[in-house]
Specification:
The chain is mostly helical and 103 residues long. The chain contains four helices and no strands.
Length: 103
């Protein structure tokens, strides 16, 4: 798909997302970051402390962007496709923790 053409559906976007996450260390950083985001959001609810919720995106994107800038050597899809990219992060996480995708 041409770079100038925007992905209209997540189904179209996800194969592209996977090509941007080839490096195993980058994928692991994404999975760890997403796990910490989930934990942070749970902590925000259980502890009734909004600071955990505010920290969640910094934690998640921090881990993911380290993966992109230092290991993938590419620009995170978040900059062009923020919604689809976030959905991709959670799908990658789910596929990894359920054993569908290699850790």
């Amino acid at each position: 798909m041409a770079d100038a053409q925007r992905y209209r559906t997540f189904r179209e976007f996800y194969p592209f997302y996977l090509t941007e996450h080839i490096n195993p260390i980058s994928r692991r950083l994404h999975v760890v970051g997403t796990t910490l985001v989930i934990g942070s959001l749970i902590a925000a609810i259980v502890l009734r402390d909004w600071r955990f919720a505010i920290a969640a995106p910094f934690i998640g994107y921090g881990f993911a962007w380290v993966g992109h800038f230092f290991f993938e050597k590419n620009q995170p899809a978040t900059f062009k496709y923020p919604g689809f990219s976030l959905m991709g992060d959670f799908r990658l996480w789910f596929e990894t923790v359920t054993g569908k995708r290699r850790w």
